[in-house]
Amino acid sequence: MTSNATCPECDADVNIPADAMENELIACADCGAELEIISLDPVELELAPEVEEDWGE
Ligand SMILES: [Zn+2]
Hints:
Blueprint (H helix, E strand, L loop, with lengths): L2 E4 L6 E4 L8 E3 L6 E7 L2 E5 L10
Antiparallel strand pairs: 1-2, 3-4, 4-5
Bound molecules: zinc ion.
The site of zinc ion (ZN) has 8 residues, from loops.
């Protein structure tokens, strides 16, 4: 089972994988934006904050 949500960036339909978890990051296939799944029921997406690849250590 998959669900769909709307990309907050470009309004495209985004497929939410059946095994998606809250707080998971997915990418919009249309605009490539990183989206965070803030809620699964109902599905809500939010633009993920841009994180530089700066994990140090
Ligand atoms: Zn998009």
